[in-house]
Design a protein that fits this description.
Blueprint (H helix, E strand, L loop, with lengths): L6 E5 L3 H12 L4 E5 L5 H10 L2 H4 L5 E4 L10 E4 L15 H15 L7 E4 L4 H12 L6 E3 L2 H16 L6 E2 L2 E3 L6 E3 L5 E2 L2 E2 L6 H12 L1 H9 L5 H15 L4 E10 L5 E12 L2 E5 L6 H19 L4
Parallel strand pairs: 1-2, 1-4, 2-3, 4-5, 5-6
Antiparallel strand pairs: 7-10, 8-9, 10-11, 12-13, 13-14
Helix pairs in contact: 1-9, 4-5, 5-10, 6-7, 6-9
Bound molecules: adenosine-5-diphosphoribose.
Length: about 300
């Protein structure tokens, strides 16, 4: 599959990996390699997606494989391999099982694509990103996790629905840990075309939207007895596009902190500038007192989870 198009590897041909592949192929970001441990699964998923090309109008190649040799020379590697949560489970409960999977995957993919940008998706996200960062030995700019892109699009959606305005006209970010309890939706800077949402809705309604945002993933899991994949896939596609097209998009990502926000040696969601180099800058934005308190609690909870990581 050597060619001029960038190669994007997605490890884990489950629901999130397949949705990401779908969005990425339809935006023609590059050729897609789907890898999974289950024989036949990534090959079948890849063929199915490839066969949509003539109708959907994309020309990129989609390949499924169980062999990491096919991932060699990727520009972006997305790691979704792992076990997802079942109804009633928290993301944190997955730590032991998924740590072994993420470690094994990182050891396979990083040596074959040492210059790639790596995006971790496996939950519990902040702990898995930290583990992958440590195991990989990569600079933090090129290994980070999906959290804020997804949580923020959910926050924006709920704000837009509540206000009855276009989904596109709402801007808002979610930082902190990617958990129901500890994510930090930044209500103080949420706005509609620059107008603070606090001018457009009551404090009670805003609090209700924040609460729904925290439980957005859980709400879906309870409804359909399986975890979400379409919005996670779209968020991954946006992050991949920001890197491959050097867009300098401002997207909160889970990244290793080395003094930013007064924190060190922990991976947690903060706003960053995403471009060809991966995380090109971390933006330290002003938080309200309440957001600041919530962010500290979020980091503390993440540190507790890191302590539970297998050595
Ligand atoms: N190597 C490669 N693939 C693996 C491995 C491994 N060692 N272990 C598991 N997988 C694959 C599974 O075979 C499965 O196809 O990972 C895929 C995971 O897909 P799903 O079970 O459908 O899970 P999904 O909903 O896509 O979520 C994946 O992302 O959001 C997180 O919590 C979620 O950790 C979970 C991950």
């Amino acid at each position: 599959m050597a060619g001029a198009r960038p190669k994007i590897t997605i490890v884990g041909a489950g629901t999130v990996g397949t949705a990401a592949a779908h969005w990425i192929a339809s935006r023609q970001l590059g050729d897609v390699v789907l890898v999974d441990i289950v024989e036949g699964l990534p090959q079948g998923k890849a063929l199915d997606l490839q066969q949509a090309g003539p109708i959907a109008g994309f020309d990129v190649r989609v390949v499924g494989t169980n062999d990491y040799a096919d991932t060699t020379g990727s520009r972006v590697v997305i790691v979704t391999a792992g076990v997802p949560r079942k109804p009633g489970m928290t993301r944190e409960e997955l730590v032991g099982t998924n740590a072994g999977i993420v470690r094994a995957v990182v050891e396979q993919v990083v040596p074959r694509s040492p210059d790639a940008v790596f995006i971790i998706v496996t939950n519990p996200l902040d702990a898995m990103t930290y583990l992958a960062y440590r195991v990989s030995g990569l600079p933090r700019e090129r290994l980070f996790g999906l959290s804020g892109a997804l949580d923020s699009t959910r926050f924006r959606t709920f704000l837009a629905l509540e206000l009855g305005v276009s989904l596109q006209d709402v801007q808002a970010m979610v930082i902190g840990a990617h958990t129901d309890k500890d994510m930090v939706p930044l209500a103080s800077s949420a706005n509609v075309r620059g107008v603070p949402v606090s001018q457009l809705m009551s404090a009670e309604r805003l609090q209700a939207v924040v609460a729904r945002t925290r439980r957005a993933g859980a709400e879906i899991t309870e409804l359909m007895k399986a975890s979400a994949f379409t919005a996670p896939g779209a968020a991954l596609c946006a992050m991949t596009e920001a890197v491959l097209r050097d867009q300098k998009r401002v997207i909160p990502c889970c990244v290793y902190l080395d003094g930013e926000y007064g924190e060190r040696d922990v991976c947690v969601g903060v706003p960053v500038v995403l471009g060809a180099g991966g995380v090109e800058r971390i933006l330290e934005v002003a938080l309200s007192e309440e957001e600041e308190r919530a962010f500290r609690a979020s980091v503390a909870a993440t540190r507790e989870l890191l302590a539970a990581l297998p050595a």
